[in-house]
Design goal:
The complex is a heterodimer of chains A (117) and B (114). By secondary structure, chain A is an all-beta fold. In chain A, the strands form three sheets. In chain A, strands 2, 5, 6, 10, 11 and 12 form a six-stranded mixed β-sheet that branches. A four-stranded antiparallel β-sheet of chain A has the order 3-9-8-7, with no helix packed on it. The radius of gyration of chain A is 14 Å and the shape is globular. Chain B is mostly beta strands and 114 residues long. In chain B, the strands form two sheets. In chain B, strands 2, 4, 5, 6, 9, 10 and 11 form a seven-stranded mixed β-sheet that branches. Chain B has a four-stranded antiparallel β-sheet with strand order 1-3-8-7, with no helix packed on it. The termini of chain B are far apart. Classes of the chains: A mainly beta (117), B mainly beta (114). Chains A and B meet through strand 6 and strand 11 of A and strand 4, strand 5 and strand 9 of B.
């Protein structure tokens, strides 16, 4: 079974700073997807960024980027120039990749990120 | 982008009653829908996976007779909490997946059982 571990329950930084959230996972699969989701106080889950395991290049989305280390099974999220609106719970998630059929997401415990003015 | 709705957004009920929560994909056909439960300050825990027209697959420890899931069409899945008790109070979230591999999440339903 796959597991996802987020070792930082809470983090706090000043606005405009850069922050990195850690995530490690355990799997015997070779093909899979990794995701970072944001859950603001509204509790709506929002996809921040995704990474396909077969891609060596780290995914980036504007101020958000990942450091994907497949051998180490590590998938950290870097938020640059942090903004007050980045305050939220952040969940790392794993999903197996199959040719067809839906696969379930396995979530980490979450990291509560607070951006201070 | 794909939109998933849930209804109701919050519900309060008496112990022993049943509550139905709807999850709809508004602009795409969802071959698979997922139901999650989230307790305060905790992560999302998958309860079950449902495919249109077939029986749901429940995760270990989830009572299928208590949490009835119906996925009668490609745009609608329902979760019925039968004979609800206070310990069933939680935040219930659905997600829907179409032809691609991304899941789109609903806004969640807060259930309070008195």
């Amino acid at each position: 079974a796959q597991t996802v571990t987020q070792s930082q329950p809470e983090m706090s930084v000043q606005e405009a700073e850069t922050v990195t959230l850690s995530c490690t996972y355990d799997t015997s699969e070779n093909n899979y997807y990794l995701f970072w989701y944001k859950q603001p106080p509204s509790r709506q889950m929002i996809l921040v960024i995704r990474q396909e395991a077969y891609k060596q290049q780290n995914a980036t989305e504007n101020r958000f980027s990942v450091n994907f280390q497949k051998a180490a099974k590590s998938f950290s999220l870097k938020i640059s120039d942090s903004q007050l609106g980045d305050t939220a719970m952040y969940f790392c998630a794993f999903m197996r990749s199959l040719i067809q059929g839906a696969q379930k997401l396995v979530f980490g415990q979450g990291t509560r990120l607070t951006i201070n003015p | 982008g794909a939109v998933v709705s849930q209804h109701p957004s919050r519900v309060i009920c008496k112990s022993g009653t049943s509550v139905k929560i709807e999850c709809r994909s508004l602009d795409f056909q969802a071959t698979t829908m997922f139901w999650y439960r989230q307790f305060p300050k905790q992560s999302l825990m998958l309860m079950a996976t449902s495919n249109e027209g077939s029986k749901a697959t429940y995760e270990q420890g989830v009572e299928k007779d208590k949490f009835l899931i119906n996925h009668a069409s490609l745009t609608l899945s329902t979760l019925t909490v039968t004979s609800a008790h206070p310990e069933d109070s939680s935040f219930y979230i659905c997600s829907a997946q179409g032809q691609g591999d991304e899941q789109f999440f609903g806004p969640g339903t807060r259930l309070t059982v008195l």
